[in-house]
Predict the structure.
Amino acid sequence: MKRVAFYTLGCKVNRYDTEAMIAQFEEAGYQIVDFEQQAAIYIINTCTVTKQGASKSRKITRRAKRRNPDALVAVVGCYPQVDPEQVLEIAEVDLVVGTKGRSKILEFVEQAINSKDQLNFVQEMNEGEDFEEAPIQNFTERTRATIKIQEGCNQFCSYCIIPYARGSLRSRELEDVMAEVERLAKHGFKEVVLTGIHLGEYGADKENLDLVKLIKELLPITGLERIRLSSIEGTEVSQELIQLIAEADKLCRHLHLPLQSGSDKILTAMNRPYQVTDFKEMVARIRAQVPEIAITTDVIVGFPGESEADFEETYQLMKKLKFSDAHIFKYSKREGTPAASFEEQVHSKVKKKRSKKLRGLTAELALNYQQQFIDQRLKVLLEESPDYKTGLLTGLTDNYLRVFVDGTDDLAGQLVEVKLKEKEGRLIGSLE
Ligand code: SF4
């Protein structure tokens, strides 16, 4: 049996794409092995969001060939889509596929095995493309599955390479999403995370379809206990969606709304489609209807032109909006995007200092948020593997709190109700 190994860099959408490729190889009888093992085929699903993503992709590619010089090494995804020439220059690469065509990866690999030449299957992205259907059969972690329902983005934020790497907006057919979720629920998955590059635009390219309509169709699926949304633009959270979160028990009280900056000047330079007031109003509207909701965010520090005063506005806004968690990114120049050529690039030491300050604030905010729930009873979806440090079972509440539970192994994978206590900054769930 031929052995194939996968490596995934980057976001949730990429992880889904890898699972969809794995499904094709499993069906054809290949054995999937860990990337650190000897394999006949290595497939690297790359990321190009930051410069580091591209250089890491190159490093992993070389590592695969060193492990087995006779192996076929395929580099797929965003990096070759944006810069196929640069990937083709890597001597260790045998096959290159972009973000389009991954549903044919098995066919491409089999062609490459029979070819002495390096093969390039990167295809141009055109307007009005259809969503490329490539279902998954399984997911490495068996309680929660990420489902890709949307691809591409038309927003063109000035720092972001994604619209160039993944093309314009396209939505997956409602029937295909439903079939996939039904199949996963039948296999025991209790939670699905709906994800996409621009999730809130789901359905914008179809007649009579939007995210709320899709969620309403998914809610009655037997065996499915939770639906979670991955990152969504605040401007795309409709009144109907907020109401659905307030009313439907299965829809998680958690929204990840990327803020990126608390300065109007920087938001404009970023080409973000809102100003600070819009964002504040949106958060207030959501909390008025779902008071305990977890609102998490992304912030970029050190964007070109970000002064100390701009940064301070971001700091104060984060504090005011009381996010329950945040990912803080230091701006990294991405060639091919407008912001890469902006003047007033911020020095790396300043970015580091600002990032540290926001990470400190994030930790405080996260702790404050979790303290609201002490002594409350909440449901936790326990993961299959216990926490490797404590040996305790662990899982998430619907509002994205990580809880540790001292329970027996048979509870793994189950949704259990616990009473929350805090110990050394951690939430401990007791089953009594
Ligand atoms: S909305 Fe902006 S940051 Fe998000 S994928 Fe589109 S261009 Fe990139």
User: Anything to note?
Assistant: The chain has 13 helices and 18 strands. Residues 153, 155-157, 160, 162-163, 197-198 surround iron/sulfur cluster (CB under 6 Å).
